[in-house]
Amino acid sequence: MKKVETQTQKVKNAIKIILILLPLILFSQKKIEGKYNIHKENYFHDISTNFTFFKNGTFAYEQSQDFGIQQFGSGHYFINKDSLMLNYDLTKLMNNSYHVYKYYKNNKDSITIKLNIYDYNRKIISNQPIIILSDKTDYVSNKYGKVEINMKKENKQIELNIPDSLFGYNFKIFKDCNYEIDVFLNTENLGIGIKNQIMKYKIVEQKDDFIKLKNTNGIIKLVKQTE
């Protein structure tokens, strides 16, 4: 009985080893290394898209425009016959802008909204625009990162927009309360991350200086960049 159990355990261990080594075996069939840019014919001319493939079987992806990075991601890649697999399993997500607040009420016919504007390291952000969308009014933080807004008290909500490095941070408050709000903005223009996604491409052609790939959206050409 013990002999059968021992043999069964050996089989299980062998299967585990095969599963661990399989991606490495597939990857070793063919390698891609270096930085590649998607050829301009595939994208609008003001968009730059690149992939960087590393020797250890990982990659980094980045798409950007003049105003900053739009998308990014990283993970493992391997080649199986004529297919390139990109597994976005290593992407480190960025922090989003957020706020914390205290509020109180009184019998006055007006309210006061006090804001302190910081980055993630609690560094003061001066000259930061703050827009009240419902009233179409705007304010700017002073050199201490502070803004004080006085408004007529009303039984409704208002929405604040504070532009950050992405699309702007919006949140709503009630106009019948007084607020003390600390806002922490994303000041790193890292765009939107791609994570927990696997993309498969068929390798149409591979040369030393370019690779042609095909997926459901058509054919793209990756041109290798020189150092």
Order of helices and strands: HEEEEEEEEEEEEEEEEE
Which blocks of ≥5 consecutive residues have pLDDT under 50? Answer: 24-29
CATH topology value of the largest domain: Lipocalin
Percent range for helical residues? 10-25%
The top level CATH class name of the largest domain: Mainly Beta
Largest sheet: 8 strands, antiparallel, barrel
- Rg, Cα atoms, Å: 26 Å
Q: Architecture of the largest domain, CATH level 2?
A: Beta Barrel
Q: What fraction of the residues are assigned to beta strands by DSSP? A: over 45%
Q: Enumerate how many helices there are, as a single number.
A: 1
Q: Sum up the overall morphology in one term.
A: elongated
Return the average pLDDT rounded to an integer. Answer: 84
User: How many structurally independent domains?
Assistant: 3
Report the strand count.
17
Report the end-to-end length measured between terminal Cα atoms: 62 Å
Q: Please state how the strands of the largest beta sheet are arranged side by side.
A: 1-2-3-4-5-15-16-17
- Structural class computed from helices and strand pairing: mainly beta
Protein architecture, described:
- By secondary structure, the protein is mainly beta.
- The protein folds into 3 domains: about 1-30; about 30-95 and about 190-225, Lipocalin; about 100-185, Sandwich (Immunoglobulin-like).
- Helix content is about 10%, strand content about 50%.
- The chain has 1 helix and 17 strands.
- A hairpin with a 6-residue loop joins strand 11 and strand 12 (about 170-175).
- The chain is elongated, with a radius of gyration of 26 Å.
- The model is unreliable at about 25-30 (pLDDT under 50).
